Amino acid sequence: MTLEKTITDELIHEFSKTIEMFDISPTDARLFTILYLNHQPMTLDEMSQVTEKSKTSVNTGIRNLFDLNLVKQVWKKGVRKNLYTADDDLYQRFMQGYLGRWMGHINLQKQTINQIREKANQRSQGDLIEDRIKKMIKFHSLIEETFKEIEKQTQKRI
User: Fold this and answer.
1) 35 and 75 in contact (C-beta within 8 Å)?
2) Measuring CA to CA, which residue among 49, 45, 15 is closest to residue 32?
3) Which residues contact 135 (CB under 8 A, 6 or more apart)?
């Protein structure tokens, strides 16, 4: 194994750890990192060869990354196969996706907890958990406020 190959493998391994922190599977994080490091768009066959994964597995990973807006399909004149590339603006892409997932989750949780609160209040002893429910809602509201502020800062960066 050449020194360059070793360094590339180490870089893929280490950067993939960061990508995994955004709730992306290790396999998809590795695939993203390979695409990001490659300066040219890649076909599914090329990715399959580099990752040593089946074309089906790579296709699933690309769809996952595509759904998260982390990769895009590109066309190149004269190339009949689908080509994919990773976006250069890592910070913007990851923060938008991460914050979007969190904000959606927070809103859903607040709605669900409020529905449970209504059910609890209809019971004779519903007030026993009212304080905890208020704290749960406050917890989600604080997270929401924090992420909205981060989102504002992310937008200013554009």
Assistant:
1) no
2) 15
3) none
Instruction: Give the Å distances, CA to CA, from 147 to 21, 62, 74, 109, 154.
Output: 16, 27, 32, 15, 10
What's the Cα-to-Cα distance from 10 to each of 5, 20, 85, 101, rounded to whole Å? 9, 15, 21, 29
Collapse the DSSP code of 76 into the 3-class scheme (helix H, G, I; strand E, B; otherwise coil) and give the result: coil
Question: DSSP class of residue 129?
Answer: T
Tell me how far apart the alpha carbons of residues 140 and 146 are, in angstroms, rounded to a whole number.
Answer: 10
The pLDDT value given to residue 37: 92
Indicate whether 106 pLDDT > 90.
yes
Q: Which CATH architecture has domain 3-86?
A: Orthogonal Bundle (1.10)
What digits encode the pLDDT tens for the residues 56-92? 999 999 999 999 889 999 988 888 899 999 988 888 8
| Residue 87 near residue 71, CB atoms below 8 Å | yes
Residue 158: is its pLDDT beyond 70?
no
Pairwise pLDDT comparison (41 vs 79), residue with the higher score: 41
